[in-house]
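User: Here's a chain of 75 residues. Predict its fold as tokens.
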Amino acid sequence: LLLQDAVLLRTQRSASGGSTFAEVLREGVRFLVLEDDLRLRGFGKDDLSESAQPTTYRAAIRRMAEAGTSVKGCF
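Assistant: Prediction complete.
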């Protein structure tokens, strides 16, 4: 789940033109991106790569609770 400024990672390209997450994506990892945080930074759903799925806070919390996901923060 990408939130706050981390949402920008799914809109950026590396200097070589590839995705900044290319290695992770080859492993099949998919990302949830908070719609509100994306919008607040001037981006929309159309700016996301195929590996990113926009989500709301409510939907993200529901998915995490259903999966028994633990949360770790990094600041």
